[in-house]
Known about the structure:
The chain is mainly α. The protein has five helices and no strands. It has helices at 14-19, 22-26, 37-51, 57-71, 77-88.
Amino acid sequence: MSSHGRALPGEPDETAAESRPATDRTDPLPTVDLDLSSHELLRRAHVLDALGPDWDPVAALRAEEAAYELLYSGLSAEQQRVYDELVSAGVLPRRGGGDAAA
């Protein structure tokens, strides 16, 4: 507090705190319920619109799986060992398991 009896910026104002009822200082913030479901539906509609009418999700997943198969093919012995360790640790999915890599 300054020598003039007023709180400086960043300091708590003790006189203002004393003048408030005690319940105001301990009450939690009010709860606000937000329903974002209509916004989510709009977002999904925009995504599908951007993908276009020719987008084939099954073909996209097959192409992604083929890309991962190619990515992990032809590994050296050391690379294969590291890959196997990552699979056993759950970091990477097993090839051909139908799971997309993270």
